[in-house]
């Protein structure tokens, strides 16, 4: 069963949140995941300066160690959170700026 780390879309029309999940890659976007690993809230709350991402680092590292592959958007957040290294094979290959 090929596992993929990706985002699931939840919430109301103008108040979306994303769940970081480990899920079989053949299942639809909002299908039942094998495990929920974190929550991304892209909206700023009153008094906040940064978007919030809550995740379980040890479970993410476990899924990566057993062969799960992150989607491109999830890989960018994992690089920003220092969970995977930018030179890793799992990190997205970004084009150099001209």
Strands of the largest sheet, in order across it?
4-3-2-1-5
Q: Per CATH, which architecture of the domain at 3-70?
A: 2-Layer Sandwich
How many H/I helices? 2
Indicate the radius of gyration in whole angstroms: 14 Å
Question: What's the CATH class label of the domain at 3-70?
Answer: Alpha Beta
Helix content: 10-25%
Name the helix and strand elements from N-terminus to C-terminus, one letter apiece: EEEEHEH
Q: Helix/strand-derived class?
A: alpha+beta
At the fold tier of CATH, the topology name of the domain at 3-70 is S16 Ribosomal Protein, Chain: A
Distance between the termini: 40 Å
Largest sheet: 5 strands, mixed
Overall pLDDT level: 87
**How much β-strand is present in the residues?**
25-35%
What's the number of extended β-strand segments? 5
Name of the CATH homologous superfamily of the domain at 3-70 = Ribosomal protein S16
Low-confidence stretches: none
Specify the overall morphology: globular
Keywords: Ribonucleoprotein, Ribosomal protein
Pfam family, one: Ribosomal_S16
GO biological process, one term: mitochondrial translation
Family: Belongs to the bacterial ribosomal protein bS16 family.
């Amino acid at each position: 069963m090929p596992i993929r780390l990706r985002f699931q879309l939840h919430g109301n029309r103008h108040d979306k949140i994303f769940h970081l999940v480990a899920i079989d890659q053949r299942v639809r976007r909002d299908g039942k995941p094998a495990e929920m690993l974190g929550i991304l809230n892209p909206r700023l709350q009153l008094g906040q300066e940064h978007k919030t991402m809550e995740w379980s680092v040890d479970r993410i590292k476990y899924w990566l160690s057993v062969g799960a592959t992150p989607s491109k958007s999830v890989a960018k957040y994992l690089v920003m959170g220092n969970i995977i290294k930018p030179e890793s094979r799992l990190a997205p290959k970004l084009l150099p700026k001209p």
